[in-house]
Structures are given as C-alpha cells and as structure tokens.
C-alpha cells in the first residue's frame, strides 16, 4: 500500500522531471548539440503530454482518488515506464527507446481500460440500486425498521382554537 501511495504522489512530478531528464541526459550530455538534440527537443514535450494524460486518466478514477493510491497493476506499469525512462537518460540504445514507446502507449491504454471498467462497474451499481428502488427495496442501503418515538407535539404559529375570525365581531 505504501508503494501504491508513493506512486500516486509521484505521478505528476515525474511527468515533468522524466522528460527533462531524458532531454538533459540524452539530448545534451550523451548526444551533444545537433540534429539528435532537435529530435529530443520535439520528443520530450510529447513525452510530457503523454505522461500527463496517463496520470490524468489514473487520477480521474474515483476509486483511486478515494484511496489516494493507484492500483497494484497501475503501480507495476508506471514503475516499469519510469525505470525505462531513467535508463534512457544513461544508455544510448534504440531498443530501449522502442521499449519506452511501447510501455508509454501500453500505460495509456491500460489506464483508459481501467477507467472504463471502473466507470462501467459504478454505473451498473447505480442502475441496480435504481432497479431495486423501483421494486420497493433498496439494494445498497440496508433496510431500517420504523422507530416509535412516542407522542409528538406539533406547535404552530397561529391559534387553532374555536374562536371566531378576527374580522367578525359579534355585537
């Protein structure tokens, strides 16, 4: 649970830091200034947007917001993506770049699939509750027996005794 909460807290800071790390580590330190730096200058903002979208899809799920922790599979996928991006800053290998692209795309589709699955589950629960309510029983709310509270005294702001109305004066 601790790892899942840490991953939840690191979603958006690492969406900023990892593209900057890739730009500095690969674009400036390893490859130097040139055409490859221009490629990284274009790819890193796209990576930033992709990580923001994945983080947004994950945080958009009500279950994640309530628990303030990502799911176990979210944590596994995100840690794999983050480890691959950190490795790209150190190692210049095309297979690692291809793996990171596949992992980021996989993380996007996985986050979208989990969002739709949780949304479908919540809509189904609401529809079951509505269906049970129309049949006379509530599905998600436990039935309570009526409680006898004893005698009730009702106080009104007008006098309700048998006096004649104020406009009629009998002489």
Dominant shape: elongated
* Beta strand count: 0
Which structural class do the helices and strands define?
Answer: mainly alpha
Following the backbone from N to C, one meets helices and strands in this order, namely HHHHH
Biggest sheet: strands, sense, closure? none
Number of helices: 5
- The tally of structural domains comes to 1
Taken as a percent bin, the fraction of beta residues is under 5%
Helix percentage range: over 70%
Query: Roughly what is the average pLDDT, rounded to an integer?
Result: 86
Q: Span between N and C termini? A: 86 Å
Q: Measured on Cα atoms, how large is the radius of gyration?
A: 31 Å
Extract low-pLDDT stretches. Answer: none
Transmembrane segments: 7-29, 35-60, 72-91, 97-116
Keywords: Membrane, Transmembrane, Transmembrane helix
Protein name: MFS transporter
What features would you describe in this structure?
- The termini are far apart.
- The protein has one domain (about 1-135).
- The relative contact order is 0.10.
- It is built from five helices and no strands.
- By secondary structure, it is an all-alpha fold.
- The model has no long low-confidence stretch (mean pLDDT about 85).
Write the layout of secondary structure elements.
Elements (H helix, E strand, L loop, with lengths): L1 H29 L4 H26 L1 H6 L4 H19 L3 H41 L37
Helix pairs in contact: 1-2, 1-4, 2-5, 4-5
Features:
mainly alpha, 5 helices, 71% helix, transmembrane helix, transmembrane, MFS transporter
Short description:
This protein is mostly helical. The protein is built from 5 helices and no strands.
């Amino acid at each position: 649970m601790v790892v899942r909460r840490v991953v939840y807290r690191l979603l958006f800071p690492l969406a900023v830091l990892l593209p900057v790390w890739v730009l500095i580590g690969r674009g400036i330190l390893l490859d130097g200034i040139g055409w490859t730096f221009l490629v990284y200058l274009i790819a890193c903002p796209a990576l930033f947007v992709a990580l923001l979208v994945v983080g947004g899809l994950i945080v958009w799920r009500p279950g994640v917001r309530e628990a303030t922790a990502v799911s176990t599979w979210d944590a596994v996928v995100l840690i794999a993506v983050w480890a691959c991006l950190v490795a790209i800053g150190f190692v210049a290998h095309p297979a690692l770049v291809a793996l990171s692209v596949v992992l980021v795309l996989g993380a996007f589709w996985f986050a979208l699939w989990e969002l739709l699955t949780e949304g479908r589950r919540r809509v189904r629960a609401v529809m079951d509750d509505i269906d049970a309510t129309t049949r006379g029983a509530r599905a998600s709310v436990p039935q309570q027996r009526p409680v006898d509270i004893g005698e009730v005294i009702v106080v009104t702001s007008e006098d309700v005794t048998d006096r004649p109305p104020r406009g009629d004066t009998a002489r």
